[in-house]
Design brief:
alpha/beta; 12 helices; 6 strands; 35% helix
């Protein structure tokens, strides 16, 4: 692949994310209404699925468009499912997850409390895509979330940051670019490998006691790179590579979170490990 084409891959992924967010937004809101989809605050967790599931979107995503695939998948399997918007910037509709990530974690804390109060559950499970799989770790580690969360499932999470296929290493060659990024979209700056936010988040270990962690990664991820940096270390961690489950699965960063049912099957296993079934290529039809 020509170097300039390789450099454009992360940019293309971000633009595709934006397109996904815009196109269905006008029609997707109906699925967010109580009783017709997820975010139904009358839902009561069952004995089979006693914890509500909170979905945490990725950068440039929102509470609906990021979950048009996974939310119905979990809802039809009997889960009470909820999703939030976080990291909003003034005057920027639909494209969220751009604000300071520590502040976004505070928004998650408030939302989880709301869900627990409505459902009567003692703890919730969290499932996040991209930034949404990493950001909750700040909530768990610094904002008291560990006492309220049973499991965190990260789909292509940037747990140790991203270098965007090496593009972030070019920032020092453009005077003022890094400062501009921090000032205008701090949520993006926080996700760059080696940022002060990530240094604080990962100091002293990746995990906290009492929470189960699952990471589902794809070797074709072109946004969170290198893809192995998505993995966590520590007790209660299960790191999964999508292609170990199905070598034929070519999903990249967006597809694994938006519509990959093989990944969805593994999410369901992580939420209910006592009744887990083998995830294979055949899970695409489950």
């Amino acid at each position: 692949m020509l170097p300039w084409k390789r450099a454009l891959r992360p940019l293309a992924a971000l633009l595709l994310t934006a397109a996904v967010a815009v196109v269905p937004a006008a029609t997707a809101r109906a699925s967010d209404a109580p009783g017709s989809g997820w975010n139904d605050y009358t839902c009561k967790p069952s004995a089979a699925h006693p914890r509500p599931v909170v979905l945490v979107h990725g950068t440039l995503g929102n509470s609906v468009d990021n979950w048009l695939g996974l939310a119905p998948y979990l809802k039809t399997r009997g889960y009470c499912v909820y999703s939030l918007d976080y990291g909003q910037l003034p005057g920027v509709p639909l494209f969220h997850g751009l604000g300071p990530i520590d502040k976004s974690a505070g928004q998650l804390a408030v939302f989880v409390d709301k869900v627990l109060a409505a459902t009567g559950a003692a703890r919730a499970d969290l499932v996040g895509h991209s930034q949404g799989g990493m950001m909750p770790r700040y909530y768990l580690k610094f904002l008291g979330g560990a006492a309220k969360v049973n499991a965190l499932v990260g789909i292509a999470p940037d747990n140790h940051g991203t270098d965007l296929d090496g593009l972030t290493r070019l920032l020092p060659y453009f005077p003022g670019a890094e400062d501009l990024l921090k000032a205008t979209t701090p949520g993006l700056a926080d996700q760059i490998t080696g940022s002060s936010f990530l240094t604080e988040l990962n100091a002293g270990g990746d995990t906290v006691p009492g929470v189960r962690y699952t990471v589902i990664a794809t070797r074709y991820d072109e946004v969170v790179t290198p893809w192995r940096t998505q993995y966590l270390s520590g007790s209660g961690v299960r790191n999964v590579l999508l292609q170990d489950l199905c070598p034929l699965d070519l999903s990249e960063h967006l597809a694994i979170g938006l519509f990959d049912r093989i990944a969805f099957h593994e999410v369901a296993n992580a939420l209910d490990p006592a009744h887990a079934t083998a995830t294979t290529c055949a899970s695409a039809g489950s």
